[in-house]
Structure formats: structure tokens, C-alpha cells
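Q: What structure does this chain adopt?
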Amino acid sequence: MKDKKGISRRHFLGSASVLGTGMLLKPRFTWAVNRGADTKPALLGGEKTFSGSFPRWPIIDATEENALRGVLESRQGWGRRMRNNEADKFETRYAELLGVKHCLTVNSGTSALFTMLGALNIGPGDEVILPVYTFIATYNVVAMHHALPIIVDIDPESFQVDPSKMEAAITPNTKALLPVHIGGSPFDVDAVLAIGEKHDLPVIEDACQAPLASWKGQKVGNFGLGAAFSFQESKNLTCGQGGGITTNDDRFMNACVGFHHQGSVQEESPFAQGAARGGNFRMTAFQASILNAQMTRLEQQAKTRSENAAYLGELFSQIPGIAPAKLYPGTTNSAYHLYMFRFDSNHFAGMSKARFIEALRAEGVSCHPGYGEMDKSPLVASLAKNRHYLQVYGEKAMNEWLERIQCPVNEKVSRDVAVWFTQTTLLGTRTDLEQIAEAIRKIQKYAKEIRDATV
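A:
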């Protein structure tokens, strides 16, 4: 695991919520945009509140066009054997931006996670612990190695993995911890690293949603043995499909390079344990050239998201029953791939979350109900009947596994509480954000009528 001496310990003044949500900031206004709250909600036949539009994603211009043409005309690096100039360039730039020693490009965030578990020689009989509230790829990469995904519950205020649940799930078969910086906000880094160190387990950061997020002044991707990033089309840094691995460990990087290139480890790695295996998970020069073009906007876009998240937090602080997801005190920055907030139906006449989302969408505001109950999904349940798993673990152990992975906190959060805006919402204008808050206040005022309406 990474030596934690390298982690910045500078004092973080104030609550991270000031940066991330603005919940502690004194409001600068007395709701000057309240003009629409007295009008009938759109779901009940009124006019919709939101009149703006958010930037079409991804944002591109001639920079991307010229980058692609350059690769096309060079006739080099189309398939990227081991290296190509565009990938080399991006890996160097991204590593420098994060302050990490190594970066390796791969063809997706899923491949980044899969490669790192492969470099650790994770396989049948092993267990890997991960949070329930995450994209299914975090689960799939464990199952793809025929190891047992141990799904654990979350903190209901942050939606991040609950470190105490992670530690309680450790057994002699546990081989890695796989926490997720969900929504682009850091999980409780200090707590998870302490658990990994205590039990001598590698921590692999799923940072797929978290480019430029930071903890105590240091960017995520530096804390575990390795970290995965995704450059899929919806991500804050995108090339359509792509991924990256970061690490400060030379030997682990060597094992990852080998696994992503047909098992061709260049020198003996203690992580591979003599196992020569791998596949083709390489990134092409076309993908890398797009990333290099997108990098020119990354930091300014991140700044805009952070500023708008703080402003939206101010607006939400005036609406009872709406609260941004908690950021931990060590959080210096969230990447805000998602703006996640908590909906409390008690302040909306008992209206269901689903009805609230329906009403908000009717006002013209795009929003999402978030992740569901992975522990109860048919995909996860099917693993208990998979013949390969039955051969390795047996029917009794697989049935016990289904009981182990129940997550009641997530059940409440996913059904009744969590609501999202995507990152493009935070690239809008202040007027856009004010209209979002105005729409919610209108829904709150007419909550009983909306709850009881048959439309």
C-alpha cells in the first residue's frame, strides 16, 4: 500500500461543506427569484419554471477535430502496440496534474478496475469489498475475476461507503478493498486507509467519477495502491470511451502494464505471483488525442462546477427538506460529476421521491433518482446460481453470501432519499440554478395537491 507519509496533513479550515455545498455560508439574498412559487406547478397544468438549457456534452471545438486529423494523417498509433505519442503525452500530463508518479491509459474505466484486480492476481476463492451505492461496473470487475463481491452499506448522509461496514465484512478470504469516490466526492479516505493498513489489505480507489477531487489538499488517485478513472462520454474528462490507472508504486504499475498488454510483464512483479495473464485493454491514439484536447478545458470547468455547487447549496439551504449530500471534513474539492442531494418527504406532505422527480421534470428540470438496490438486483442474485461459483464456493456458501450483502440503509436512500443532477447542470448559469430552486419551492408549496393528483 502507499506510504501515507506522502499524504498532505495541512489544516483544512472550516467545514468542507462550505466548499462543496455552501450549507454554512450566510445567504446573500432574501430569495429575489421567488416570483414563480405562487404559480401553479407544471404537473397541475401550470407553466414550467425552468426556461434555460445546459451545455451539450461533451463540449468540443476545432481542438478535437485537429487532434483527430493529426492522428489520422500520421498513420501511427491507431492500435497502440505498447505506446503511442498521444497516449504517452496524456499519461504524463495527467500524472503531473494529479501529482502522482504513474498513469497508464486503458480502454475504459471498467478495464482500469479489471486490470488492477488482475495485477493483484485476484481470483476464485478471493473476496473483494465494495459499496452497494455505485455503478454496476465496480461489482462486475470482481465477478469477472470469479472472486466474490462483498457488497456493504453506506453512510445515509453522504451516500459514500460506510468504513465500519467495510471493516466488519473482512474475512480471511478478503484480498482487497474497493471503495468508490461516488459522484466525484471523496469517501472517508483516512478511515478506509486505516482499515487497509490495519488488516494489510490493498486499497484500490474507484475514482472513475472523481478527476481533480481532493482530500486534505491532495488529489484522489494518490491514496490507495492504485486508482481507476473513467473517460466515458458522460464523465468530466471524456474521450467517448477510455480509462486510466494511477499509482505511486513502481512494481504495481509494472504488473498493470503487463496485464493490460496480454500479460507481458517486463520484470518479475510480486503482485503477479508468477501468473502470466492479461488481455488487450490498451487505448488508441485517437482516444488519447481527444483527452489531450479536453484537458485544455478541464480545470476551468472544474472551477465552474465547484462555484455553482456552492451557490446551489446556498439556494437549497433556504428550502426545508432539501440538503446536499454530506462532504467529509477532509474534502478539499469534489469533482461534482454528480450533484447529489437528499429529499425529505416529511417537508413535502409525504410525497414520494418518485412523485417529486416527476414534478421536477415537469418543471423542465432534468434530474435522476440515482442508483438502485444492487444487493437485490437480478444480476447479483444470479451469481448465487452460477455454476462456476457453485463449483468453487458451494450452494450453502452462496446462499449465505446473499444474506451477507443485504444493505438496509441503501434501501432507504435509493428508494426515498437520493436525487441527482448531472455535472452539466453545474456548467449552467446562476439564473439556471435559481430557476431550479424556484421550481422546488413551487413543488413544496403545492406538495399536497401534487401528491394527491391523479395526473
